[in-house]
């Protein structure tokens, strides 16, 4: 979509929105060869690269990375800590017939990458995009990849510590307080909130969330319910995380949050906690994280090392 028109050196430059994409360095453990990395051969370019692809309408970048890896390799994955973002120049004539008139469509493609582990690998038939999928030992993968950026991403991934995602979610959009006459803890999400909750399903799924924790408030439980139903997970609820109890009880909130953190790190099972705006500062303080604000439905992903410290942090929200 054109947002403005600039002229530089007599050339009409038409900027476009960045094209967003997601990809991953995906590994699995082979009983004899140790760590293997998946690389794909793209027929159109005759090159070897890491799996990646464009974000679809309404899709988040993490969910796109997971989907594209599945489509290109047959591997179901769980995202770990984020890696670097690689940008590509997409400058080209606005239309082939306009190139002689000095009109250029400019833009960039931004590919966000994560480290990831394969949880299941299925056979994939060759198609017009990817005709060969290879799982290779690290040294062989470095020798096979065609681009320096992919080499760097693989090496960057290998330097990362082992981490477990802990996700902090602010509940989805709820009915206005002025329109609700019953107890606030029973105030439900509205239509926008229900859509946000549905969109959270592939987003939380991208990180392989297994443990769900929530305040007992309906709007918090409802935020996690679609994901819980999709994966047949239970939601552990705590009155101490509600606005009524948690806002003025930082120590109580910290006890719950640190217990969730400890269990996630010890088990290696990713967890998500759904809370309220007034309780969020206590949650972040308990995790030794800097203060932050979240809009409804938005979440932080804290990638925790084996000692429970935060190695890296992400922020995402459903696009409603």
Automatic annotation (TrEMBL):
InterPro entries hit by this protein: His_Pase_superF_clade-1, His_PPase_superfam, Nudix_hydrolase, NUDIX_hydrolase-like_dom_sf, NUDIX_hydrolase_CS, NUDIX_hydrolase_dom, Nudix_hydrolase_domain
Domain of life, source organism: Bacteria
Nudix hydrolase domain boundaries: 17-158
Enzyme Commission (EC) number: 3.6.1.55
Coiled coil feature spans: none
Broad enzyme group: hydrolase
Single Gene Ontology MF annotation: 8-oxo-7,8-dihydrodeoxyguanosine triphosphate pyrophosphatase activity
Biological processes per GO annotation: AMP biosynthetic process; ATP biosynthetic process
Family statement: Belongs to the Nudix hydrolase family.
Protein name: 8-oxo-dGTP diphosphatase
């Amino acid at each position: 979509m054109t947002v403005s028109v600039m002229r530089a050196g007599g050339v009409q430059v038409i900027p476009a929105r960045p094209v967003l994409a997601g990809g991953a360095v995906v590994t699995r453990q082979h009983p004899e060869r140790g760590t293997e990395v998946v690389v794909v051969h793209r027929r159109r370019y005759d090159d070897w690269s890491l799996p990646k692809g464009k974000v679809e309408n309404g899709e988040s970048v993490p969910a796109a990375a997971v989907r594209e890896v599945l489509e290109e390799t047959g591997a179901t994955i769980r995202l770990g800590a984020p890696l670097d973002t690689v940008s590509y120049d997409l400058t080209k004539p606005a239309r082939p017939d306009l190139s002689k008139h000095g009109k250029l469509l400019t833009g960039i493609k931004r590919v966000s990458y994560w480290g990831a582990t394969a949880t299941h690998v299925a056979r994939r038939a060759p198609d017009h995009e990817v005709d060969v999928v290879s799982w290779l030992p690290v040294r062989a993968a470095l020798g096979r990849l065609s681009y320096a950026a992919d080499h760097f991403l693989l090496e960057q991934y290998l330097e990362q510590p082992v981490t477990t995602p802990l996700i902090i979610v602010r509940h989805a959009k709820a009915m206005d307080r002025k329109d609700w006459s019953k107890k606030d803890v029973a105030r439900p999400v509205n239509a926008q909130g229900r859509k946000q909750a549905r969109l959270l399903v592939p987003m939380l799924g991208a990180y392989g969330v297994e443990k769900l924790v929530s305040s007992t408030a309906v709007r918090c439980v409802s935020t996690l319910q679609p994901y819980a139903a999709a994966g047949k997970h239970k939601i552990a609820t705590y009155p101490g995380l509600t606005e009524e109890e948690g806002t003025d009880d930082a120590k109580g909130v910290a006890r719950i949050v640190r217990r969730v953190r400890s269990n996630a790190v010890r088990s290696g099972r990713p967890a998500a906690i759904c809370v309220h705006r007034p309780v969020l500062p206590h949650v972040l303080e308990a995790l030794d994280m800097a203060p932050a604000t979240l809009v409804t439905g938005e979440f932080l992903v804290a990638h925790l090392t084996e000692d429970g410290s935060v190695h890296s942090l992400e922020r995402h929200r459903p696009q409603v």
